[in-house]
Amino acid sequence: MMKNDYIPFPSKILEVIRHTEIEYTFRMEFQGEVKPGQFFEVSIPKYGEAPISVSGIGENFVDLTIRRVGKVTNEVFERYVGDTLLLRGPYGNGFDVSDYMGKDIIVMAGGTGLSPVCGVVSYFSEHPEQRGHMTLIAGFKTPHDILFRDDLNRWGKNMDVILTVDCAEEDAACHVGLVTQYIPQIKLGDVQNTVAVVVGPPAMMRFSVQGLLGIGLPEENIWISQERKMCCGLGKCGHCKIGDTYVCLDGPVFNYTKGKFLVD
Amino acid sequence: MGFHVTNMQLSALFQTWQTNYDIYAPRNFSGGGRFSDTDCIRYGKIDCVDEIVFDKKSEYSFKEILTPISQTLFFFTEGETKEADAPKKGAVIFLRSCDLHALKRLDDMYLHNGPADYYYQRLRENIKIVLMGCAHSFGNCFCVSMGTNVSTNYNMSIDCQPDGTYLVDCKDEAWAQQLEAAETPRLEVIPSHVEENNVTVQIPEHLTAEVAKSTMWNEYDSRCINCGRCNFVCPTCTCFTMQDLFYSENGKVGERRRVWASCMVDGFTDVAGGGSYRKKNGERMRFKVLHKVLDYKQRNGYHMCVGCGRCDDICPEYISFSGCINKLDNAMAEVTEQ
């Protein structure tokens, strides 16, 4: 019997964590293998499907951090209480934490870009013995847009967390400025033994990678994750194709040696 | 096994097919053209061989039989989902050599690029192919350049003779037995094929994605009107978009479909929150052209374009795809000089 990958399964919403007015984390019932950086197609009948990356993984759940910016996500926010969502997945390659083990780690995230790397940061926050020094630079538009506040506080206990916003009132409790401004503040050891993960809007990723290359990180030590329209997650619909690469199959996580050749 | 068949003998074969198969072939849709009082030749169900148009190229390809323009995947009824039924019958499809080569591309896309596609596979498993010979090249065809002018992987071939009879080469045993039983005259048949086109293309050996930086794409910013017709007539374009719809009589019941999508049309790359890629039509043209003659090959080992020339036939702005391919050599020179 052939497998029909298009039919979604219902998943119960176990908990909703509100970060901001428009960004919530939905803790969804799920059992099965899943890696940080992979994504699910989340759907609501009548409104359609949207690819959402995994921001947390537990024994019987996955966290999906959803921003209310489109047709599907709008509806998710309207009707979530005690309800279920339809899911397909997980899809994509995701981050392999073994790539970063025993190394100094830099994570640079912009906005909801923090959500796909959350799982990586959490893992190394819980297993500090498996890594060297770790720095997280997380940037948001304004203090109202900051995601994962509780997690950021928790992570800050055993790694350098630099929280910055593009613009803020004067008395804001975080830095103001672009993430790239804080690259010089990274406590850098041996660059050959330092890895970096960069996720965020295209321009943020471009300049962040330039900055990291600038301080001497080799290209092969940098990973990025791409966001594209994906209607299937199965390498069929064509929307996420860049050159000979399908982001949904070959990505969304790319080593920069491959990622740098992706020209839309 | 070759036969010289009459219309009547072929009709008998059609009747046998129709117990288990629908028969699809290029046929004339009178008044079905895109302008008033014009006809359209495209694929449709047929009952007899007379309906088949042999002397013209079909404006649209056979692909809609395997990847319908709008395909219901499943139905929603409150908390339940119900998979859409497969067609009850298989399909006998009449197609030309270029389109038969295109079928290989559809297979590689839907069966081998990631997990096999459930809906494609269940249609694909139950088709038979009748190759329509090409006695001469049609306008804009460049199959010889693309190496798609000859095909041998058919169940039967058919060539229409001037006297209204047909030459067929039958590889399907059951069909051949039926023709033999009807005492159809046997002879050696090689399906006709084109050995020369008026249009030729030369894909540069040293072509790389660097050609994206060339200025050659700029002209398409203004010439192309991103209507997407080139994608819709192309036998190798397979992109789709998911679409949910609910019935107006009962808002609790609806269906999820996939519908054809075009990389030339606005919205193809839009992500939630307002991001999009390839805003200029020239960039979209570059994306499409390089998929057909560069990056598909990097992934699959052979070119995607089959040289049917339908994109050139249909373009309302008279943009020539083959013309564009032939500009790539200069464009490569331009970007390597820099």
TrEMBL record, chain A:
<keyword id="KW-0408">Iron</keyword>
<dbReference type="InterPro" id="IPR050353">
    <property type="entry name" value="PyrK_electron_transfer"/>
</dbReference>
<dbReference type="InterPro" id="IPR017927">
    <property type="entry name" value="FAD-bd_FR_type"/>
</dbReference>
<feature type="binding site">
    <location>
        <position position="232"/>
    </location>
    <ligand>
        <name>[2Fe-2S] cluster</name>
    </ligand>
</feature>
<dbReference type="GO" id="GO:0051537">
    <property type="term" value="F:2 iron, 2 sulfur cluster binding"/>
</dbReference>
<feature type="binding site">
    <location>
        <position position="237"/>
    </location>
    <ligand>
        <name>[2Fe-2S] cluster</name>
    </ligand>
</feature>
<dbReference type="GO" id="GO:0016491">
    <property type="term" value="F:oxidoreductase activity"/>
</dbReference>
<keyword id="KW-0411">Iron-sulfur</keyword>
<dbReference type="GO" id="GO:0006221">
    <property type="term" value="P:pyrimidine nucleotide biosynthetic process"/>
</dbReference>
<keyword id="KW-0001">2Fe-2S</keyword>
<dbReference type="GO" id="GO:0046872">
    <property type="term" value="F:metal ion binding"/>
</dbReference>
<feature type="binding site">
    <location>
        <position position="248"/>
    </location>
    <ligand>
        <name>[2Fe-2S] cluster</name>
    </ligand>
</feature>
<dbReference type="Pfam" id="PF10418">
    <property type="entry name" value="DHODB_Fe-S_bind"/>
</dbReference>
<dbReference type="InterPro" id="IPR019480">
    <property type="entry name" value="Dihydroorotate_DH_Fe-S-bd"/>
</dbReference>
<dbReference type="GO" id="GO:0050660">
    <property type="term" value="F:flavin adenine dinucleotide binding"/>
</dbReference>
<dbReference type="InterPro" id="IPR014260">
    <property type="entry name" value="Sulphite_reductase_B"/>
</dbReference>
<dbReference type="Pfam" id="PF00175">
    <property type="entry name" value="NAD_binding_1"/>
</dbReference>
<dbReference type="InterPro" id="IPR001433">
    <property type="entry name" value="OxRdtase_FAD/NAD-bd"/>
</dbReference>
<dbReference type="InterPro" id="IPR017938">
    <property type="entry name" value="Riboflavin_synthase-like_b-brl"/>
</dbReference>
<feature type="domain" description="FAD-binding FR-type">
    <location>
        <begin position="6"/>
        <end position="97"/>
    </location>
</feature>
<protein>
    <submittedName>
        <fullName>Anaerobic sulfite reductase subunit B</fullName>
    </submittedName>
</protein>
<keyword id="KW-0479">Metal-binding</keyword>
From TrEMBL, chain B:
<feature type="domain" description="4Fe-4S ferredoxin-type">
    <location>
        <begin position="213"/>
        <end position="245"/>
    </location>
</feature>
<protein>
    <submittedName>
        <fullName>Anaerobic sulfite reductase subunit A</fullName>
    </submittedName>
</protein>
<dbReference type="InterPro" id="IPR009051">
    <property type="entry name" value="Helical_ferredxn"/>
</dbReference>
<dbReference type="GO" id="GO:0051536">
    <property type="term" value="F:iron-sulfur cluster binding"/>
</dbReference>
<dbReference type="InterPro" id="IPR014259">
    <property type="entry name" value="Sulphite_reductase_A"/>
</dbReference>
<keyword id="KW-0479">Metal-binding</keyword>
<dbReference type="InterPro" id="IPR017896">
    <property type="entry name" value="4Fe4S_Fe-S-bd"/>
</dbReference>
<dbReference type="GO" id="GO:0046872">
    <property type="term" value="F:metal ion binding"/>
</dbReference>
<dbReference type="Pfam" id="PF17179">
    <property type="entry name" value="Fer4_22"/>
</dbReference>
<dbReference type="InterPro" id="IPR017900">
    <property type="entry name" value="4Fe4S_Fe_S_CS"/>
</dbReference>
<keyword id="KW-0408">Iron</keyword>
<feature type="domain" description="4Fe-4S ferredoxin-type">
    <location>
        <begin position="295"/>
        <end position="324"/>
    </location>
</feature>
<keyword id="KW-0411">Iron-sulfur</keyword>
